[in-house]
Amino acid sequence: MQNPLLARTLRGTLTLPGDKSISHRALMFLSLARGTADVQNLSSGKDVLSTLTCLQNLGANIAPIGQNAWRVTGGQAFLAPSKPLDCGNSGTTMRLLSGIIAGMGLPAMLTGDESLSQRPMKRIIEPLTQMGAVVQALGTNQSAPLHFLQRQTPLRGVHYAMPVASAQVKSAILLAGLFTDPAESVVIEEPVPSRDHTERMLAALGAQVSLTPITLIGRRADLLSQDITIPGDISSAAFWLVGAAILPGSNLIIQQVSLNPTRLGVLKVLAMAGASVTAEETLQNVGEPYGNIQLHGGALKGDITITPEMVPELIDEIPILTVLGLFTQGMFTLHGAEELRFKESDRLKALMETLKALKVDFTAYPDGFSFEGNPDWQVPKVETPLATHHDHRLVMALEILNLRSFLPLPIEGKEWVSISYPGFYETLSRLLA
């Protein structure tokens, strides 16, 4: 039987769909800002479509002008929606829109699919309630649907110490803070830094935001539209980077991808594993740096240790980095990843279930797991379909693992890649060819 290490490589130059996190924010912030601006390379995934549809149902003026390109005319007041706002599978949509709706005092109902309706919303309800919002979580354990009651008085400021680092919670507070009286202060303390796309874009559009602690000085009236080109999604790039790393002889160049410092944990972990990876910043747009990443596949050797402080930089990449660890000569250790239990699935539980199905000898912890990698490890025959729990990142991680398997893995729910990366399988075929 031919060795898959010799038979398969990933080769080519590619650009990626627009960064999902930045795409959500571009639509929301430009809808709030004064003026008209164009957004290029918007993510075409279903999560961002949920945000776009919800904004349109609130009266935002967003119109298509080309492939993955939209024109946003902002500045007007939003309208109370005539029906519940369906956030689909997108926690970003629900949590960030909650900040806007609370700030505007609109009566509204936010719903989502079965997965989203199980995710914790207390983390945004608590600070928004402190600011004066009236919101009820109608699901079990303070989960969606979320019912916002109409409010006439402005929100109060808040000094909020976040118990868990979360860019979505931080963003919800900052968006609500845009509607408080300028005399009120909005201050956020994070236990460790999380993604800072909101702070960067608010500052680029004219709001004053200072850091450590995060303090919002500007308000909605300060936001002025400007055209935005969304860089490629580095969380999507992670799948190809790991795929190339575990296939010796691969050579991959990814162009115009986000190089936001709070998203570069994946490059740090690849370097830990001994991968030959380089990144070069080429330009910035609305405060976001982006550029090119190149990776050559080769021998992988070195312990991979993901600490609690690193997890906020890697919250979406841990499934595919677990695949990297399987083929790296060294220990893979993950701690501080409790937040993975509240993503599209309980990713921590799902990853350990997958390791068990793959007959990997691992040690489980309440906040992670560890195992010893092996560059020559062979993926065992798996007959029972591997559950992915409607989680797009688990599906794509398993497809990259498939590249090192003699027999195709039985993977459930391949259609879920459309949440963030509709063109995933097309790109995979092209890079293999």
Describe this structure as you would to a colleague:
The protein is α/β, with parallel strands linked by helices and 433 residues long. It folds into two domains: 4-16 and 231-432, Alpha-beta prism (UDP-n-acetylglucosamine1-carboxyvinyl-transferase, Chain); 20-229, Enolpyruvate transferase domain (UDP-n-acetylglucosamine1-carboxyvinyl-transferase, Chain), CATH 3.65.10.10. 31% of the residues lie in helices and 21% in strands. Strands 1-14-16-15 form a four-stranded mixed β-sheet. Strand 11 and strand 12 form a beta hairpin. The longest helix is centred in the N-terminal third of the chain and has 14 residues, at 91-104. The radius of gyration is 21 Å and the shape is globular. The model has no long low-confidence stretch (mean pLDDT 94).
Quickly list its features.
2 domains, UDP-n-acetylglucosamine1-carboxyvinyl-transferase, Chain, globular, four-stranded mixed β-sheet, 14 helices, 433 residues, alpha/beta
Summed up, the helix count is 14
Whole-number mean pLDDT? 94
In terms of per-residue confidence, which ranges show pLDDT below 50 for 5 or more consecutive residues? Answer: none
Structural class, from secondary structure content?
Answer: alpha/beta
**Strand percentage:** 15-25%
Based on the coordinates given, report the CATH architecture of the largest domain.
Alpha-beta prism
Total discrete domains: 2
Overall spatial form: globular
At the fourth level of CATH, the homologous superfamily of the largest domain is Enolpyruvate transferase domain
Percent range of helical residues:
25-40%
What strand order characterises the main sheet?
A: 1-14-16-15
* Strands, total number: 20
Question: Cα-atom Rg, whole angstroms?
Answer: 21 Å
CATH fold-level name of the largest domain: UDP-n-acetylglucosamine1-carboxyvinyl-transferase, Chain
